[in-house]
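Researcher: Go.
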Amino acid sequence: MGNMYFRLEKRIRTPLAIRILNPVVFIVLAMGFCGIFITLAGFEPVKVYAKMIKTAFFTSKGLTQTILYSIPLMLCGLGVSISFKMNLNNLGAEGQYAVGAIASFGFVIYGPSMPLSIKLILAILIGIAAGCLWSVLAAIPKALWNVNETIISLMMNYIALLFLDYLCRGPWMNNEGLNLPYSASINKMLYLPNLFGTEINSGIIIAIISAIVIYWFFKKTTSGYQISVIKNSLSAARYAGMNIKKNILLVMGISGALAGMAGVVKIFGITHRLQPSLPGGAGFTGIIIAYLSKFNPLIVIVVSFFIAGLNTGSYSVQISGVPSQIATMIQGAILVFVLAGEFFARNKIIVGRRVSADPLKEGEA
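Model: Structure:
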């Protein structure tokens, strides 16, 4: 053993099989790790996981809830992924989500009278624009003075969330709502249409189309190519004459617009009213989704569906006494394990035996 050595060697190219199997293996390891704590809590991990999976993905009610819960996650995950693709840390999706919901709801309730179909379209556009603007406000200091956008975008979450809470408990509170901090409901004619007679609204189509458009944007457009160059080398981008400031505002604007769209879908497709903590952590969960999907917009859709299933399944096992925080624990563990897995995907461990420099000692051994 004394002559054995271990060293890391960076892979020149990661094989496709490793890229596919690596996240799967480390997700399984994360589930096993969480299983230790589930066992310590007095439950059987296999039965808990089986019930979670069955409820979330193999029952009609559970599958519907999983899809509905996944829609805002998809849009927030897409938004965060776009910003991370240019090394911009947009941690403000939670606030952009809230601002989009506030703006679209406010227009519907207090805006001018007009045909409801037109009003719905305008409300959607206003919600998207509000999320975009809220994100751009955090990006302007970065673009003009290179101020770190991470803290600004994070702090702006609390402004938006506290304002949402104020509206729900104050001027927009429904006086006929038994003193609960909810607004009045929107007109049923403004609900997003459901698909094929189910309770799943058309927001899922919006999310999927958004993912496809974003994928095309990065693969086929000049702006998408510029974003990739800026991410890899700022100096090369400047040398090529690319407008860094413009691209910062563009990327952060699109990122916020998608998060704002998540708020719009939540209002017009799910809750149909404003309520405190409406985003429910979806903006922060979007960060986990973005990293797990490696910022690939098409993978974001799949990962969001999986994360939503964890939440739906966690509610089903609460009846058995399993803590509801299990879903949060699993999400965190999966993120940590998958990120660790990325290290092993990019590097390989070389195991060898040291060769003695003294042939006499070699013979004695």
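Model: The two ends are 13 Å apart (CA to CA).
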